[in-house]
Amino acid sequence: MYAVLRTGGKQYRVSPGDQIRIEKTEHQDGALEFSDVLAVSGEEGKFESELSGAKVLASVVSEGRGNKILVFHYKRKKQYKKLQGHRQDFVEVKINEILVNGKSFKAEAK
């Protein structure tokens, strides 16, 4: 069982129980709801045809910033060099439940 959702300009393939890092988004009390679901598959090779009310429910595990990426601009023969660093903010979420067509798929308890 998996779903493909879109958030932060990227697409993620998630299953109940997965933990993923997404772009920083607003959340209330550590709960997130993704309604932009592109595809849902209950079994291998078969997809749900109707996705009008499909949702993915998740909970926030942690927030943070990624590794530093160095951006270096250089123009030869012009004495121009520029070095800039960047750290992207992220939210790590755990996928709890996938809802589609009145069916609910939850993470298995361990």
From TrEMBL:
Keywords on record: Ribonucleoprotein, Ribosomal protein, RNA-binding, rRNA-binding
Subunit structure: Part of the 50S ribosomal subunit. Contacts protein L20.
GO terms of molecular function: rRNA binding; structural constituent of ribosome
Classification of source organism: Bacteria, Pseudomonadati, Acidobacteriota, Terriglobia, Terriglobales
Biological processes, Gene Ontology terms: translation
InterPro entries hit by this protein: bL21-like, bL21-like_sf, Ribosomal_bL21
GO CC list: cytoplasm; ribonucleoprotein complex; ribosome
Function: This protein binds to 23S rRNA in the presence of protein L20.
Protein's name according to its UniProt entry: Large ribosomal subunit protein bL21
Gene: rplU
